[in-house]
User: Fold ABC transporter permease from Paludibaculum fermentans.
Amino acid sequence: MRDALRRVGWLLRRRTRDAELAEELQFHLEMEARERQAAGLPADEAGLAARRDLGNPTLVAEDTRAAWGWQWVESLLQDGRYAVRNLRRAPAFATAAILSLALGIGAPTGIFSLLNGLVLRPLPVPAPEELVQLTYTLPLWETNPNNRNSWFDYPQFERLRKESRTFSGVFGGTRVGRVNLESGGAPGLAVLDAYSGNFFTVLGVRPALGRLFSEEEDQPDASVVVLSDRYWRTRFAADPAVVGRVVTINRVSFTVAGVTPPEFLGIAVGNGPDAWVPLRSLDRLAPERKERWIEPFASWLLLGGRVRAGVARRQAEAELDLVHRRVLLEQLAVSPLGREESTQRFVQASHLMLRPAAAGMHSGVRATYALPLKVLMGIAGLVLLASCANLANLLLARASSRRREIEIRQALGAGRRRIVQQLLTESSVLALLGGALAMGLACGSSALLVRVISTGDTPMSIDLSPDTKVLAFSALATFLAAGLFGVAPALRASRGSRSGMRTGSRQTGQGSRVLDRGLIVAQVALSVALVAGAGLFVRTFQNLWGIDPGFQRDDVLMFSVDAKLAGYGSDQERTAALYGEILRRMRGMPGVRSAGVSIVRPVDDQFYLIDRVNEIDGRALAQRDTIKVAWNAVSHGYFDTVATPILLGRDIQAGDDATAPKVVVVNQSFANRAFPNENPIGHRIGLTTIVGVVKDSLYNGMRDEPRPVLYYSIFQHGREQGFRWGFVSYELRSVGGVNLGEQVRREVEAVDRSLPLFRVRTLKVQMAQSLLKEQLLAMLSSFFGGVALLLACIGLYGLIAYNVARRIPEIGIRTALGAPRRHLFWLIQREALLLTLAGVALGVPAAMLGAGYTKSLLFEVAPSDPLTLVTAAVLLLSVALVAGYAPLRRALRMDPASALRCE
Assistant:
């Protein structure tokens, strides 16, 4: 250790130590000369004798430095300084190489940073590997992804928490959603979660300010709230005096207890709340749902927990599964739902399972974007390979121009290893500079991607700060890049002969030509795969955007309001009157052609309301004949506003209110399913009568197949159907694209100033946001495909330009002998076209193989789509022709006499 520290000290104080060494050598020379003079030698002979005895001072100094420090470190530092000087002498080459590497390394690093934040980064809590999420299996006839459900009822939660011995704690909670949080009389929207009192304790989260709520505070009169660091900073300007302040949430008073640390963004990645309240405070926020605490089979709670240290996950899973099944059997015996066949099948088939939650609970954001980001990672990796191949070509060309320098070094005694080290050091300097710039690009691009995929009012809560995984990934990408583009040129350059010292030598080995051609073929193959992939994703986006949605997307503004945010609570009559008054004012606004209100807006991302039709015309349907439907509740004018045609019967009318007979409008799919070859008008579904049939339209997403949908009258749909007023969406069709935003806000404020608007967007924007995943894939893959085409063009240009320069005398002779231009064109372009065809032949199967992995992301286009593959091949052949235009034009316009003098 002392020796290592001494050597490090030498490196850190090298200039000082060099001066001391020179001074000491001079001292020894002077002392030796004095001794010789004292022995009788003249001064000049004494100095020469002293130098002969000491030996070569430079060699002595080198040997001393080798003993005091690390020679290989000295050598690397020397090579590094020389590499920097070399790059400064070639600024164009250095700039092109560094930018190419920055893009090649930065693209996968930025996508990996987002993927890491979504999937890999552990929660910032102690021992996150002990955290699990509770889920249970569903019967096979359910269509839930992965055949699992994560929602439990409260009696189950209580039993699991009390009877578990393998867990140090089990917590439960739910998303309350959007609330109106007022402070000092100023309203503001916030996203609220409600969790059991042991939530922060089980996780091990400590407050950044104040305190967090405890298990003792989780009571029906709970009145404390904990703020997230982000909300505290944006809403309260990071004011520490906020602790202890009384705020109101939907007109209910709460006291701010504390603020969570900045790194804690919640337990569901991308869905972090602005605030948390104890679970039992729901009795104050939503008092109409008192039955939630005792109701069996009412799934509304997400459960998580911490397994005790040393307990295997399978052991904990087996224990909780026994409790889970015992509770289900007990509930089956006492619940009215126990008589239904579906409930009985569920109880028989359900088993509790534990999902690792070290990186957070399952979230919709993670489920939506995990696979697309992995695909983009692969695409960005191909761009990195193409960038490295292109840079290797540049270095090979650069090495050819430096052949004389390298062979002089060899003639002076430099070994091949030393030359390879110097060239690899230059490549490493390029990679390090590119990697450093890539980190900046990665941080900016990942933050931009989060803003792109954020559809709400605030960006998604994803921690994108570089951690050890991101830094290690960037370092690995930089190291691999340096190896990929640096090793082959260095080995080839160091293998040269002395022939390069003869001026004018144009010799090129067969091995070097094979390497050049191989790199071009690899570039073209990678480019074909990237361009074909981009084509598939672009066609997918175009196919989805070109679907007939069953309504017209232009000139429709939508906004949502929630009466509960203004303190209307569970008063259904006041809420209905409020929503009716807003609708009346919307219809009276200038520039509004028609207006409607609904629970589910077109292509909604908030609701998916489903039900089963068990009875038609008073006749009960057999279990196998029941019809699973989606449903909506809409007002008069809704179908006219979204331009969905009425095919039979009539629309919902203004007179279809609470005093009128119950009516329902059905879509084509329901009519064809329930009444094949029959007019459905006048038939009854439960207590409602079918009065109209509308065209099928998209309900939840652009990939949805048409399914049966029922449309009730929103001001008639009473409590007997289980309907309670929540937030609703207003749809306004304007005349000629008039901007209605400010008018809408003024009219709503005129009804109730405390009622906030949210989700304000046009129907066209709503549809675009529903395709964000596809748009992201199409946009980024097209960008990467364009970069790959540019790199291929540069590589092919270099190859053709080199061939032209090498064959100028031959071109001159052929021109002088009268060779036609087309023969000269084929002579020069042939190799580039043949290499391009070879790359296409390799790239097409690679593109088909990669597209097969992304099959689930495609829509109405096959992975082996001939049009896309042929287009990619034609593009690369066109690039080869374009790349050769300038060198060919210069060669064909050259005077034969000038060309012959180049020999």
Summary: The first strand starts at residue 131 and ends at 137. Residues 563-755 form one domain. DSSP finds 28 helices and 25 strands in the chain.
